[in-house]
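Task: encode each sequence below as structure tokens.

Item 1
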Amino acid sequence: MSRLHLPVSFGKNTDQLLAMIEGSDPSQSYDLLANLKNLGKSESEIVSLLALSSAKWIDHSGPYIGHGILNANPTLRSIELMAGDDADLPLLQMSMYVSELMRHPNYGPYEMQQIEGIEGDSETETAADLSKAIRSGSSRYMAEKLFTGLYSQAGRSTGEYLLYEALMQYGENEHRLLLPYHTIKLLERNNWENAVTCLRPTVQYLSANPDISHGVKAEQLSKTVDFGEIISRGDAFDQENSYDLTRMLLNSVLGNEMIVLADYAKRSTLQDMYEAIALSSTILLLNSDLEQHSVTGKHCILSMIKDRDLPDRIKKIALLSSLEGPRARRIKAYILKSLDAYMKVPDIPETASEEDLLSRLEGEILKGQQENAFKLSGSYVRSGYSTDRLAKALLSICFRTESPFESLHTSKMLVGMRDVTVSSESDMKWIHLAAASRFVAEMVKKEKAASKTAMEYYRKYREIVGTD
């Protein structure tokens, strides 16, 4: 007897590997990782399998979502930056997290089913129908079918349609953008293999309880912004103009940030605006209560506005929406210190070699000394030492001292802070990784007990694979 509905399938070998992941208990995550390694699977292949497992067995229809597929690309970035020392620890943390998620009562039981796509007469018509279905908030399954149909018509360009819809909802929750952005980055690594399955969680989430009120405001204001004109001003960086914009963004009346950005877009270079958004975001993090997402959504936006392959219509909405995330608005409502309070640069300790600064920084972080960590990290960047080496040190501490849930959040923030620092031309570029160091030091105190299980499993994993 034939069945009307069948679960998604990826071929015998992949289905067997996914079944291995689904059947793995969180307390046996080290065995799962060792088995996948013994089968010859690379870090990228293992992370991609964990992401595919998340898509197949975790319901993403909200209001909360599983972070398995969302964290795949940032986890691979962490592994690349850590290169060698403890590089398998992010893999273990992610496998623990995905395994826990599949057993969480809020996300299942669920198994993604095969569906037939629905297509309009043209790509434009299907895209318009998909947008209506997503924004209706009551047509999740129809949205998934329309998305599947649109992918058959538009291919990889379908990702751009989802990014636009995500930006329209960004003001309701930063995860609305984080999920499609990082899924697309993972697909770019994997030549868009299993793209429809990997992106259906995004469609599920965007179709649940959408709020486009902030996006509508950005859409209206975007008509006054000419992104081509911004690009035509070249790459020059006016630090004082960027500082002025930063002060305006942080000190303006809550809700006026879009208007400020639209105004400065008429006379600023893209680098001026990039630096101001990045600096504003980091200062919001410094004023937050352990809130990684006060910056992670903005890191996506900063990447998008410099992406030459994205259409201007998307980049304009992204630019104007950069400070619209709910966490940014919440922090700004009670911000204690603005730009000028952080403009005094940290003193560089005498005879401070790169090794000495890194050693002292790690010691202060592990003692939970936030302000000392902030100053030493700032001094390190100002000394011109390796940004990647600092990021690697912070990632290693993060994965050794935090639980799976928190480490995956913090590492995403750390990778973004590294990228912003590398792209910055500002005299205050030191502040991004300094703020990140302060954050990790604060998390050490909070997560001291939670990280013990992960490190115990990591020791067992290293024993199995023969690494001492």
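Item 2
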Amino acid sequence: MKYIGFVITYAPEDGINKQNYFINGTVKEDICETGCAEMFNSPRRRNLLGVIDASPSEISGDETAFLCATALEECLGLDFDATYSNFFTAVNEIAKGRAFQAGGKFVCVNTGILFFQNEYCKVYNAGDVPVYHFRDKKLKNYAGKMPKTVEREEMIDNDGEVEVKKCVKNTAPYIGFISDELVVEPYISPKIKIKNKDIFLITTQSVRDVVGEKAIAQILSNDKLKIDEKAEAIVDAAAEKNPDGNFTVQIVVAKDSVRFVGVKLGYIFTAVIVALCIVVSSMFGESINKGAQILVNSWRIIVNSFTYRDIKPDVVADPWVPLGRDEEEEDQKKKAEEEARKAKEAEEEQKRAKEEAEQQKASRPAPVQKRPSTPAQSQPAVQSKPASSNAEGNTENALEGENAQASVPAVETPVVTKPDLPPVKENDEVELPIDFN
């Protein structure tokens, strides 16, 4: 599994942040900082995460939380299931020492720890630090009550001989309880089988009390938010309701690393296959092309043998002809359509020529002066003779036409003089007569 997570801690600017966190060895070293956030991405086989909340005191709970977080670093990389007892004993001694320094004032430490090993997870909880597991839109709190008694092994001196005996010890109600007779024993959850996209959440008690588990589940159910945005949304909701509080949220999502490896292996395998194909084609390209051509031709023969295109019918049908028509009727119809088309084109041509003539006539300008009319001269009448034959009649008619043309005198065309135009000055508006000659 691969684990991706985010932690954020918040306190008011004029307050003291008495909370700290632990992410595979990373803690909030600047204990005076009111707000801090960390992002982590771990492919380790063993991962150790925790949130430590110390009660405020004059001697400052932020220092106590920091010392307890650094004590957890000694367990990093180890099997925490075998070393958790030493850690909680050390943390209890640290808290009691801070209480003595504070003049016997109350110093309490609450802690919630997640230990990931391979595909399993365990919760170790001492005090009121909720540890949630979110899967399939359901939120489950794995933090339980600390046991009242615990069985421990003790070394007893019996007349110079050291014996190891098991005895039952009472447990302290919290870490930092000042008593030598009581021991600290956290609540330990059963093994949790981790699935892909499982979310684990560690919050301080103040977050749970202010926001509520129902609102936390709604924020975790929002798939549009990234993992860090979900943690920020929970802290924002808590700070909005109680601006003077201390809030810490640590969120972790599990990703199946096999899928990432599988995708990478798939890319590598594809690249290797492509490279092999290129090498083989460059070495045996010609023979491969011939073999491929033979395979293609064989495939075509096989496919064609099972298709209808190679099945020839016994009777071939004549081309389809509409009922009630024959070839003569079709030819006559085509001729009639062709004649009608030609007639229509001729009619359109005549119409177009007529329109062009009218346009030219309308656009022709009138002459400046009219020519004087000449009186028509009388022509002598020509007596008609009876035609003896067709040839003689045609000859006489032709001669008469020539005599008639010769008898008409030629008409002289008068010369038109152009009028003198006055000189035109610049910017003068003068109407000039139009000369069409």
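Check on item 2: The two ends are 107 Å apart (CA to CA). Residues 307-324, 374-411 have pLDDT under 50 and may be disordered.
End of task.
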